[in-house]
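Lab notebook page, bench 4
Experiment: in silico fold of construct C2
Operator: M.H.
Input chain length: 324 residues
Purpose: comparison with the prior construct
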Amino acid sequence: RHAIGLASGTEALQIGLRSCDIKQGDQVITVSHTATATVAAICLCGATPILIDIDLNSYTIDPNKIESAINPKTKAIIPVHLYGYPADMESIMSIAKRHNLWVIEDCAQSHGAICKGRVTGSFGHLAAFSFYPTKNLGALGDAGMLVTNDPTLAEKSRLLREYGWRQRYISDFSGLNSRLDELQAAILRVKLAYLDEANRKRQAIAQFYSKALSNTSLTLPKCALGIKHIYHQYVVRTKNRLSLRKFLHQKGIGTLIHYPLAVHQQPAFLHLSPPSGLLVNTEKIVDEIISLPMYPELTFEQINQVAGSITSWENSRKYAEALF
């Protein structure tokens, strides 16, 4: 019912947390396999991120690992809908209700994704969206949005985005300067009408990739019953990642890694590392994931070139292994 335009997705998360009175001394459960922004937003509120492992099929937060991480300091959960795949929100909301926790969905990569008949962003107490240009719905520059059905949270979020002003120039409390620029809003308003069509194109590209690569050694994206994956990224896994990336680069095909280090492995966040063995899935995939080209404007020839090149790489690798 309420949508608050903001300057970025990171600030949408930060303002969402602050509207729930998350502060220093509080703990927020989330994942380490995510963009740094998820964890940075928690730290910007003075709270402590508690990083738990992911499900190996969806790459999203594993609900079975949440309750063991909850303690009296725990105040919220941030599930991340990663690569366009929704987290298991029914399980997460059930856990949150039992423990009286806030849930703030990170929807930066899931514009239009559906979990059991409901779009991402409609489950939690709040949901944060990024409209960075590379997103499924992207502006011309940075932009974000916070959505909620709670009028109290909406009102506080609106005050927080502009210095805590209820009356102009009078701050009721300390806030930010995080307004959505009018030019970005105008661009988003036009592009929103094309989101579903763009997502359908992404799904068609993903379907082609999955069929063409089904006989290779790559681990391909999975999609459970009742899930609408909108493929912000098409992410595969291989233990021969360096070889594959080098081969594709020689063919003029770019790839990326989302993300080359888990958050707890990065210099700024080493202090958040949990005891060894708690993030086994997260640490396993970091060395294997590759994002293949994925955007609605890809032509059939380009998609076929990517799939064909991977098949050629696979055949040459098998041939080399047979020789030695």
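Observations: The chain has a mean pLDDT of 97. The longest helix spans residues 300-323.
Next step: discuss at group meeting.
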